Amino acid sequence: MKRTDGKHAEASGAVKILFNMLYPLITVGAVLLVWYLGSLAAHSAIVLPAPAATLERLLGLLRAGEFWRSFANTLLRSLFSFCLSFLLAAGLGVSSRLFGVFRRLIEPLIAIFRALPTVAVILLLVLWMSPGGAAVAVALLVIMPTLYAALLSALDNIDQPLFDMCRVFGVKRSRILGRMILPMLLPEVILTLASGLSLNLKLLVAAEVLSNTAHSLGAMMNAAKIYFDTAELLALTIVSVVAAVLMEWGIKTAAKPLYRWKDAGGRV
Amino acid sequence: MKKRLLALLLGGVLGLFALSGCGKPDTVYLDVFMPDGAPALVMAKLMHDENQLGRENVRYTVTAAGSISEPVIQREAAFVLMPVNAATLVAGSGEAYKLISVNTHGNLYIIGRGGAATLESLADDKASLAVVNLSNVPGLTLRHILDKKGIAYSTDGTAVAGAAAYIKLHGIDAENLAGQLEKTYDYVLAPEPAATTMTKKYGDVSILMDIQALYGGEYPQAVLLARSDVYEDAALVEAMLSALEAGEDAAWLANHISDAVTAVGAHMKDGAKSGISAGNMSAAVIENCNIRTLRTADAKAGVLAYVDRLIAVNPKAAAVPQDAFFG
Lengths: 268, 327
Hints:
heterodimer; A: 2 domains; B: alpha/beta; D-Maltodextrin-Binding Protein, domain 2; 2 domains; six-stranded mixed sheet; 16 helices; 12 strands; globular
């Protein structure tokens, strides 16, 4: 009986994995089919090249040293700007949570940053900074307010009575931080990190295109656009999308063990 | 009763929709497109006169420089004036468009501060040189000249490792020209009339070098294409070429600056503002724009030679046009 149950469990597990892979494949297949039909209708490689031509160009890019140099530069800039954004957002978020006056002073600034039109900011920053610096600064100005709002919301959601209870029982601050606050914040922070990093990459690439940052994915996209190489433009777009998706998935997967306690019943 | 009334009302509404399709068919226009700047001056007299080239439906539109390829890709343009390298990339097969003339022959100048300079002196100083449209004709032409002179350069604004003398090239957009000249760069390669505009705006800036002289003469910068079906109408093509040859009389442009500026401004797409204004135009600027119509028969060899040089600098920047491309 047990053996049958075990085999049945294994079989249903395998089927589940198969379906988890199948649905995305169906979606991607449908997108490729629509793309192929669109390229036939467009009848112009400049307007919409066929998927095969784009794949060929993508393989060519992957063999080119300049591509990897540009890709690495863009990724490093993205990580750098995101770390800066996160540290700033975390500092401002904690300060806002602890000091009401600070929160009231900072929130109009955050609202302004959130409302800034990205293109206008890039055009101004290019005058004041180097193209690479301008791209980093743009990503920071756009992402930081989003991270600030998410982190502050997570901090606000921690019950005040829990703090009161800790104080009554004389719990050390380090223990409050390490055993209560951080574990409670972690799921929200991880989600924010994952989606924020992905968005940051997209913003950075757009900023690189507009500021023509040398040796970057954005500069390669700009050149592809100038020279009507739509196949290369699409190939570079696919690279950006895959990188963003992998970063988001990678963070969520790597961080799962950190908040396994939630599934175990919330025991700290 | 109510249902009948509702049915009648709905039927009436549907009938109106059906009838809205009837009526006079939309007019088919012959659209002529050109980018803002010197190419727009090529057609200034035609736009001023609203020259219909013997037809009744010719429409002139001046676009932003970066958007000139769109009407070609979408086959919207009956005639289009555009940079030669872009023309070879989007229409070089000759299937959709034919080249019928070359209309500007070089209008690039290096402006800057500090008095007389040469490319060699800039290299000795390891100077930074901003280039409007580094990836296109201006940058490619300059790089060809630098290669010919054996002057080292970078295209990302960095130093050239192992070189005692070099020029650091930086790409900038035409829209950022004033700001970059004010804050960042002492030397800029810019096309006319933007070059003269900057010398008037900043008293310490002057035209230092003539790219055409450094190149060794003229080069085909902007070319006129005719859509293949339009090209079949020989009378129409001849009407266009003849009108251009008459309109580019330097005397007309120089004596009707205000009319030319007004005509260009009135034909800007979506009411955008032209970079050409009465304040930045003069007879000298018009001469610097190097406007002259050269028909295909006389221009073909020059186009092929120039395109070869652009490809030697950057293989992606142009394509060798097929024979069918030359009308």
